[in-house]
Design a protein that fits this description.
The chain has 197 residues and is an alpha+beta fold. It has a single domain (5-196), classed as PAS domain (Beta-Lactamase), CATH 3.30.450. It contains four helices and nine strands; from the N terminus they run ββααββββββαβα. The chain has helices at residues 23-29, 53-67, 148-154, 172-196, and strands spanning 5-10, 16-19, 75-78, 84-94, 100-111, 124-132, 138-141, 144-146, 163-169. The strands form three sheets. A five-stranded antiparallel β-sheet has the order 2-1-5-4-3. The protein is globular.
Length: 197
């Protein structure tokens, strides 16, 4: 596996059963936010590490489809650090016995001025800010999302002594893209069922 790709594998019960050699180093370099050390995730349920009901629903659907034999196209997403925007793609591959291999591959990065909101060491208030799990835009009002830099200004977070806590969801465009992918997978399955009748 190359240095720009990071893999984990889950079994049929969605328990993490393996990670690539470089997975832990990437997690540590990106301010891993769990009480567990990255090397302790093997043997734990994947769902312990995914936030947001919409995000969990999306991943459950993708994994179900993969296990049913659908070939999933690479899914673009972002995984930003405080100092750079990272554009990645998610590859989901079904393996025997209901296992799934999930690979995140970095396609490109863009440097930027450090963003304190994404710094795990920044002091946090009790307030919550929702980040899109796929594109990393921030919800600035109901139904309205903005790039991190714009959201910081609109929410007046540059002046804040403490940063809000981050929670995850899906913005409407990313939700439509993800659901469109799932609907596209349903269409061939329905055509095959019609042919059988």
């Amino acid at each position: 596996m190359n240095d720009n790709a990071f893999m984990y594998r889950i079994d049929s019960t969605d328990t993490i059963v393996g990670i690539s050699d470089n997975w832990c180093a990437f997690a540590y370099a990106n301010a891993w936010r769990s009480s567990l050390r990255p090397e302790e995730i093997v043997g734990r349920k994947l769902w312990d590490f995914i936030q947001g009901l919409e995000t969990k629903y999306l991943y459950r659907e993708l994994y179900r489809r993969a296990r049913e034999g659908a070939t999933l196209r690479p899914i673009p997403f972002r995984c930003d650090s405080p100092q750079e925007r990272r554009h990645l793609e998610l590859l989901i591959e079904a393996l025997p016995d209901g296992q799934i291999e999930i690979t995140s591959r970095i396609c490109r990065t863009e440097p930027r001025s450090p963003v304190r909101l994404l710094d795990a060491a920044a002091p946090r208030s009790a307030d919550l800010v929702t980040v899109c799990s796929m594109c990393k835009k921030i919800q600035v009002s109901p139904g309205e999302w903005a790039e991190i830099e714009d959201a910081l200004a609109r929410l007046a977070l540059f002046e804040a002594d403490t940063m809000p806590q981050l929670t995850h969801g899906l913005c409407r465009p990313c939700y439509r893209i993800a659901m469109g992918e799932l609907d596209a997978l349903k269409a061939p399955a329905k055509a095959v069922e019609s042919d059988r009748e």
